[in-house]
Automatic annotation (TrEMBL):
GO terms for molecular function: translation initiation factor activity. It comes from Kipferlia bialata. PANTHER family: EUKARYOTIC TRANSLATION INITIATION FACTOR 3 SUBUNIT E (PTHR10317). InterPro entries: eIF3e (IPR016650). Keywords: Cytoplasm, Initiation factor, Protein biosynthesis. This is Eukaryotic translation initiation factor 3 subunit E. GO terms for cellular component: eukaryotic translation initiation factor 3 complex.
Length: 363
């Protein structure tokens, strides 16, 4: 068993997202192929992805008949259904309220069958006419559906907006149904992983900007998420001050969860311990490389880890040998130069190299 946390993440994932993770795991040697095949079948049984189910040796004939028949019934029941599966335009209007139950079910069935684009488009039309004032329950159904289909389609910006809107709604929900609010928050944060850790993403705030109740929910109900919130904080462009703020509660909650990534952050940033940070850097890098959820941003994250240690070196030294810094950061001379000078510039410091030794001076 490796440092991969995918199986824990899958507990709070939609089956279609879970299959994306399993597909990535199949490209690795982290789990036995036969174990992944069993996991795949269990997840597929919760979908209507008939082609893939057949490929996995599953019986689908009766289920496919029922699925197709129900979709046909719903399409006939809703007059003008083709309007709501066409792309939105400036002239698009929301369906009439009585049509919502049937259209929501249709969108769900489309999604279950892998028709993500049609499902997303239909939900876009439904979103035009629903609000908390109309029906909080219906709004939640539309938003969760849009998020799921949007994640499968890679619609990062749209999904981010929905997640932020839902986080605001959950934060204002009060304590009337605290258990439900906590559960929804945990599912939302897990789904956010599929947005945050895409190569092109810059949406780290989805995990970094958690309220204390959200953070408590993570610590007590899903402590493995501390790895991912830590990585999101590392990727944040304002890491030099946000990491210090982030590290405080992380230090207090170390008894609930810690790994080489969280330990690296605590030692190098919160404690300013260069020796321990140097020791933990290769372990943290190895953990990034073994975690499927992090692999898509592996290069960015490893550079962020190195930048973190470079920050500690510059802030807690008067001088250092460049050769030692290169070895410490486990990178090329060129990248070491880039990281060290960027950190120094951020802190208004000047690096003065002479005969292989770099002296640190105030500007």
């Amino acid at each position: 068993m490796s440092g991969d946390l995918s199986m824990r993440v899958l507990e709070h994932c939609d089956p279609h997202m879970a299959l994306m993770v399993i597909d990535q795991l199949m490209k690795t040697k982290l789990y036995k192929p036969e174990d992944l095949a069993v996991a795949e079948k269990k997840v597929l049984a919760k979908t209507c992805l008939f082609g893939r189910m057949k490929g996995a040796g599953m019986e689908v004939v009766e289920l496919q008949k029922k699925h197709t028949a129900r979709i046909s019934t719903l399409r006939k029941a809703v007059v003008g259904v083709e309007i709501y599966t066409a792309p939105l335009t400036d002239d698009s209007i929301a369906p009439a309220a009585p049509k919502y139950p049937a259209l929501l079910e249709l969108a769900s069935l489309m999604y279950q069958g892998g028709e993500y684009e049609d499902s997303y488009t239909l939900l876009e039309h439904l979103a035009l006419g629903v609000s908390p004032a109309v029906s909080e329950a219906t709004l939640a159904q539309v938003q969760w559906g849009q998020m799921a289909a949007g994640i499968m389609l890679g619609k990062t910006s749209a999904v981010t907006s929905i997640i932020m809107e839902m986080k605001t709604t959950l934060r204002s929900a009060g304590t009337a149904d605290w258990t439900s609010t906590v559960n929804d928050s945990l599912w939302l944060l897990h789904w956010a992983l599929f947005v945050v850790f895409r190569p092109e993403s810059k949406e780290w705030q989805l995990l970094v900007r958690t309220t204390r109740p959200e953070y408590n929910a993570i610590v007590y109900r899903a402590p493995h998420m501390l790895r991912y919130t830590t990585c999101a904080a590392l990727l944040s462009p304002v890491e030099n001050f946000s990491l210090v703020d982030f590290s405080g509660p992380l230090s207090q909650d170390k008894r609930f969860y810690h790994d080489d990534i969280t330990d690296f952050l605590l030692t190098s940033v919160y404690e300013g311990n260069l020796f321990k940070g140097r020791e933990l850097l290769p372990k943290a890098i190895a953990l990034v490389e073994s975690d499927v959820m992090l692999r898509m941003v592996k290069d960015k994250l490893i550079k962020a880890l190195r930048r973190c240690l470079a920050n500690t070196l510059v802030l807690h030294s008067q001088a250092f040998e460049m050769a030692d810094a290169i070895a410490m950061l486990r990178t090329s001379p060129e990248e070491a130069d880039e990281l060290l000078y960027a950190v120094a510039d951020f802190h208004s410091l000047t690096l003065v190299p002479e005969a292989g030794v770099v002296t640190i001076e105030r500007k």
